[in-house]
Amino acid sequence: MSHDTLSGLQSNVLVTDFDGTMTAVDFFDVILDVIPTDTMPDYWGECVAGRLTHVEALHGIFQHAPRDLAVLEKLLPKTQLDPRTPECVRQLKQHGWDVVVVSAGSQWYIDRILAPIASEVRIIANPGDYTPEAGLSMTWPSRDVPWYSQHFGIDKAAIIRELQNRGTKRIAFAGDGRPDVAAARIVTANNLFARSWLADVLTDEGLGFHRFEKWSDIADALLSE
Which residues, including other chains, have CB under 8 Å from residue 128's CB and lie 6 or more apart? Predict the structure, then answer.
């Protein structure tokens, strides 16, 4: 993952989470729905309790995923990517917006789900891999990138700050979960989009934001201005 991932962007940038934001369902929840969980550790519960990092928890869950690649690939659509995503990305680009997908999940599945628009978005996520022997894994990004996080792997707030330092005219942010909180707190209310857990936290903190139900709602809002 190169520092140059953020080079050459337009003056307006939408930084968006992937799982639960561009999709309806997190990929790790898809995995948990199809595997027996009664004999495996509660990785996510341990993460929420602070005893595992986010990266360790997701890697643990992914290690229990089916080892058959064909079965894994059939699970990808169950994340329910907003079907209007390709159309919205292209419309945003035509109106001066670039889309940067920033995830504390694994690039392995994000690359596959977003393959039809791979050349039209930038993706920053934790490294992931699959082999029949080792199964599905997720590892840490390089410590050399300015957005390295010791917990999430990817520090989304650091990406926002990096874009600000590069002189990006306008930065919008969209998210739904724990890895999104710090970034959400440094984006102005008119540029902030949230749903689910993140929306509840921001409401409790008295912070302004736009609530969305599906990712295309965000694009529609930005394009209607």
Answer: 62, 106, 107, 108, 109, 136, 137, 138, 139
Residue in the block written with tokens 């529609």: 220
Q: Are 106 and 18 in contact (CB under 8 A)?
A: no
Q: How confident is the model at residue 5 (pLDDT cuts 50, 70, 90)?
A: confident
User: Beta 210-211 vs 192-194: how paired, if at all?
Assistant: parallel
Radius of gyration of the chain from its Cα atoms, rounded to whole angstroms: 17
Which of 114, 102, 88, 24 has its CA nearest to residue 222? 88
Q: What are phi and psi of 189, to 5 degrees?
A: -55, -40
Query: What kind and span of H or E run contains 99?
Result: strand 97-106
Which sequence spans correspond to the domains of the chain? 3-25+82-128+141-223, 27-77
pLDDT digit string (tens) for 120-153?
999 999 999 999 999 999 999 999 999 999 999 9
> Residue 4 pLDDT > 80, yes or no?
no
Nearest-5° Cα angle at 109, 127 to 90? 105
- Residue range 150-191, pLDDT digits in tens: 999 999 999 999 999 999 999 999 999 999 999 999 999 999
The CATH number given to 3-25+82-128+141-223 is 3.40.50.1000
DSSP state of 117: G
- The whole-model pTM stands at 0.96
